[in-house]
Each structure stands twice: as structure tokens, then as C-alpha cells.
Model the fold of this input.
Amino acid sequence: MYNYAQLGQEQIEYVAVAAVEELPAGERLFVQIDQQPLIVFNIGGQYFAIGDVCSHDGNILDDAPLEGWEVVCPRHGAHFDIRTGKVMALPAVEDIPAFPVRVVDGQIEVGMPAES
Ligand code: FES
Done:
């Protein structure tokens, strides 16, 4: 499972990544948690986090343009839904990780799968 946003709250550990003022609507933030590079998006006040890697050939998605809810890998054009990590267009065939995001006390927090 790549869509960690579907995990139960007891399976998630939230990590603060930034204050809300640091990520205005329409912007993206690049963070690393436990060796995992992530992109956190603010789309009209809703936050989403995905793994910063294309599942096709490992390209980073830092500057990848958005088309609606889909990020487009600049290298060969694969599309991924930033809400779920689901692959939406070839040449990628595997989903990328998507993580839950919440705001607590003005801090943006990304949920990572808890160590079992
Ligand atoms: S590396 Fe992203 S589509 Fe090929």
C-alpha cells in the first residue's frame, strides 16, 4: 500500500514540517522525513503530501507541473494524483507514496507510517 493517507490514526505518527505561514496556497514545500523526500502541497488551503520520486525511473518531482490534482513527471510525462499517489498515466505503472497531512496549532504535520 502506498496511500498511507488511508491508514488508521493509530498506524500514523505525525511529524511537524512547517508553520502554515511558510506554505501559502499554490506553493509547495520540500522536506525529508526518515530519509524519505516529500513534497507538501497547499492547494487552495488543502494540504497534500507525496513522495518526491517518480515510480517510472526515479526522477524527482520538485518542479513537476500540476494539472488539476495530477502532478506530471517532467521526464517522460507520467501523471500521479497528489491526493492518493495513484498513477494516472503511463509510462509509470506503479503508484507513488501519499501521506496524510493535518494542521495542529498552526503547524503542518505529515503522517508517516508508525514503526511496528
Ligand atoms: S521518470 Fe517519471 S515518467 Fe519517466
